[in-house]
Amino acid sequence: MKKLPGKLHIISLGCPKNLIDSEVMGGLARLSGMTITDEPDDADTVIVNTCGFIRPATEESLEVILTLAETKKKNVRNQRLIVAGCLAQRYGNELLAEIPEVDLVIGTGEVGNIVRHLRRSRRTAVITRPDFLMSADHERLLPTHSVTACLKISEGCSNACSYCVIPSVRGRARSRRPDDILREAENLVARGIREIILIGQDTAAYGRDLKTRPDLQELLGALASISSLRWIRLLYTHPAHISPGIVETMARHEKICRYLDLPVQHIDDNVLAAMNRGTSSAGIKEVISMVRTIMPDAALRTSLIVGFPGETKRRFERLVDFVRKTRFDHLGVFTYSREEGTAAAKTPSRITQKEKERRREIIMSEQAVISHAINQELVGSVQEVLIDAASGQGDYPFVGRCRRQAPEIDGVTYVKGPGAAVGRFVLCRITEADHYDLYAQII
């Protein structure tokens, strides 16, 4: 087939799961002959891989699209603008109708067909069933010199949380075969990757849709046997599906970071039932106790939603008390966003945006105190640190992460001392700490 001419620039918005789709599209385009450029003004085609999970993400995506549309008007290259991703899946035809500068809109099910769409000349929206599932045969366009990469073990979600649009834009849960995942992991390691982060909409539910019923603990054990892989990190484990076997496997293998992401969203039983979370306050507390019994030194991350319909003052106070008592190492808070097409959108919400923001600030203030205290306890300890980049700070010229810190969402570790270099793992002693970040001297 004739090679694709021209230069392509991809803008990826939203979560790491979306970023992998961007990497797959970039890899397919490059294999078809296109040159990938880091400069949008230098590109013949720009793909915006959008996020449309909640209203702020939708607004950010629209802002980027409209900015590119304005730039396109002045661009002498007759640049093509393609909109992909979750927002495209939700509102593809509306985007095409409302923004004349957009040449093509493709949904999440069309990631694997990007080359075919890049050859299109007709202005159209292609929104099909969201059933794409990548494989190890899809070569990803990874950042140059990166030693960390995410690995998507599943796509879609079958949990049907009442506030969430993911099942409609990503489809039902679909797990990749274990052998395919292992093949991709080995490919990544061969390309210089030393830290693999396992992601999916619900990684703890991995394998339930496959006939052979593989499970996450088997997959973790197999990944830990890859010789040149240094760290394995696990994100997005629904508390209703995490099992003692998964945690015991994590504790047994040195390569698996003792770090667990448990997005609990709330702790009040009435709110959890309205969210259709499939678990209870007692169930969440039991899981946290189980994790801390098996892995006492595990770093726990969670995410919460405040301002959900029915979150009374008392129910919110119950959530604040839970945060104080549980002492998560890392915590993020979202204000409830009423999303069209979800079950919760039919429930009238009497909580103002101002009050939602106030509740968010209360929890984040509580967490800042907790995080600061936990970080202070780490001063004097020895931690293995992966150097990610130069920091630009004179006193601590490098910045990296220890095992208890995931990229982009947690704090970082600033490093000084001999032998530091981007991509290296170094043993450090923690010398200082603030609310979210650590400071370390190489031993």
Overall geometry: globular
- Which structural class is indicated by helix and strand composition? alpha/beta
Biggest sheet statistics = 6 strands, parallel
Side-by-side strand order of the widest sheet:
2-1-3-4-5-6
Mean of residue pLDDT?
94
Computed over alpha carbons, the radius of gyration is 22 Å
Count of helical stretches: 12
Q: For the record, give the distance between the C-alpha atoms at the N and C termini, rounded to a whole number.
A: 55 Å
* Low-confidence runs of at least 5 consecutive residues: none
- Tell me the helix content: 25-40%
Comma- or semicolon-separated keywords:
443 residues, alpha/beta, six-stranded parallel β-sheet, globular
Can you describe what's shown?
This protein is of the alpha/beta class and 443 residues long. 34% of the residues lie in helices and 22% in strands. The protein has 12 helices and 19 strands. It has helices spanning 16-31, 55-74, 86-98, 114-118, 166-170, 178-190, 216-223, 244-252, 269-275, 281-294, 313-326, 353-378; strands at 7-12, 35-36, 45-50, 80-85, 104-106, 124-126, 148-152, 154-155, 174-175, 195-199, 231-234, 256-261, 299-306, 330-335, 382-390, 398-402, 413-416, 425-433, 438-442. The chain has a 6-stranded parallel β-sheet, with helices on both faces. A 6-stranded parallel β-sheet has the order 7-10-11-12-13-14. A hairpin with a 4-residue loop joins strand 18 and strand 19. It is globular and about 60 Å long. 43% of the residues are buried. The mean pLDDT is 94.
